[in-house]
Amino acid sequence: MNYGKLWGISVSPGDPEWMTLKGLNRFRSTSVIAMPQNRKGEPGMAYRIVKQYLELHQKLVPLYLPFVVDRGILTQAWNDAVSEILPFLKDGLDVAFISEGDVSFFSTFSYIAQTLNQREPEISIEAIPGVCSPLAAAAALKTPLSIWDEKVAILPALHNLDELENVLDWTEVLILMKVGSVFGKVWTILEKKNLLDRSSLVEWVGWDTQKVFENIQNLKDYQPPYFSILIVRKTDYSFRDKKS
Ligand SMILES: C[S@@+](CC[C@H](N)C(=O)[O-])C[C@H]1O[C@@H](n2cnc3c(N)ncnc32)[C@H](O)[C@@H]1O
Predict the structure, then answer these.
(1) Does the Cβ of 14 fall within 6 Å of ligand 1?
(2) Is residue 73 left, alpha or beta, with left meaning phi > 0 and alpha meaning psi from -120 to 50?
(3) CB of 193 closer than 6 angstroms to any ligand 1 atom
(4) Which pLDDT does position 244 carry in this prediction?
(5) Which whole-number Å values give the CA distances from 86 to 35, 108, 189, in the listed order?
(6) Mutation probe of ligand 1 site: the residue of 20, 102, 133, 145 with most atoms within 8 A of C-beta
(7) Could you give the CA distance from residue 170 to residue 8 in angstroms, rounded to a whole number?
(8) pLDDT value at position 110?
(9) Could you tell me if the CB of 226 is within 6 A of ligand 1?
(10) Taking the chain (244 residues) in consecutive chunks of 10 residues, what is each chunk's mean pLDDT?
(11) Does the CA dihedral 164-182-71-130 come out positive or negative?
(12) Is there an atom of ligand 1 within 6 Å of 178 CB?
C-alpha cells in the first residue's frame, strides 16, 4: 500500500520569518495541514504563525488537543487526532502537523507521532527541526544561552520547588519553561539565592506582544502569561547597547 507520510513541521515560537526554509517548503508542498485547536474551535499558536503562508488548495484539519494534565484524557485526544489524519495518510496523501516552536521540544507532535507509530508502524514519520523558545528568548535578551563550558539545565513545569534549588546549585544557566503559574515562588527562591539580577524573563517572544525583562528584581508580585520563559544566567554576559 502507498501510504502518505506524516511530517512534523516546526514553525517557530512566534516570528514567521524564523521558520526554516525546509519547513516552509514542506509546508507549502503538503496539501493536508493538521493543527491543534482548543474546544472553542480556536486555532492554536502554530496556525497563527503560518497563516500567511497558507495556500487555497490546502486542506486544514483542526485537531482538538486539550490543555490538561490527565493522561487518560490526553491519550484519548491523541488517539482521536490520529484517527482524524489516518484516512488522508491511507489515501496516499502526506499530512503536515504544525507545531509552535520546535516539534521535538515539549511538543504534542511527539505524542501524535508515537500514537500513529504504534497503530500503523508502516507509515513513515519525519520531523523538521526549527527554532525553539529558549533560543529565541536568548536572542531577544541579547545574551548567549551558553558559552565556554557552561552547563545548561531546562526545567519544564515546576512541580517540586526543591528541585529548583538543587539544580541552581550545579548549573550555570537555568531555563524555566511554563513559569507563569509558579512565578511568585520561583521569585522568592531566586531572591534567597541572590540571583534576581541574574534572572531574565521573556514573554511572547517573536510576537507583537513580546516583553523582555533583563532582570526580575522589581517583579515580586508579577504574574507572567503562560507563554513566558525565565532564564537564570549566573555569569554576566550580553551584547546589549550601552545607553547612557
Ligand atoms: C508546551 S511548551 C512548547 C515549547 C515549544 N515546542 C518550543 O519549542 O519552544 C510551552 C512553553 O514553551 C514556552 N514558550 C513557547 N513559546 C513561547 C513564546 N513565544 N514566548 C515565550 N515562551 C514561549 C513557555 O515557557 C511555554 O509555557
Answers:
(1) yes
(2) alpha
(3) no
(4) 56
(5) 14, 17, 47
(6) 133
(7) 34
(8) 98
(9) yes
(10) 96 98 98 92 93 94 92 97 98 98 98 98 98 98 96 88 92 96 95 97 98 98 97 92 72
(11) negative
(12) yes
Please state, in angstroms and rounded to a whole number, the distance separating the CA atoms of residues 108 and 99.
8
Torsion of CA 206, 211, 214, 217, to 10 degrees: -150
Q: What is the pLDDT of residue 177?
A: 96
Say what the pLDDT of residue 106 is: 96
Classified as helix, coil or strand, 154 is strand
Radius of gyration for the chain, computed over Cα atoms and rounded to the nearest angstrom: 20
Rounded to the nearest 10 degrees, what angle do helices 183-192 and 161-170 cross at? 40
Give me 219's grid cell: 517583579
180 within 8 A of 226, measured Cβ to Cβ: yes
164, 169, 141, 44: which is closest to 99 by C-alpha?
44
**Contact between residue 188 and residue 181 where contact means Cβ atoms under 8 Å apart:** no
pLDDT at 139: 98
The CA 177 to ligand 1 mean position distance, Å, reads 7
- Could you tell me if 30 and 60 are in contact, meaning their C-beta atoms sit under 8 angstroms apart? no
Q: Quote the pTM value.
A: 0.96
Domains and CATH numbers, the chain: 6-128 (3.40.1010.10), 133-233 (3.30.950.10)
The answer for residues whose C-beta is within 8 angstroms of residue 129's C-beta and 6 or more apart is 10, 20, 102, 103, 104
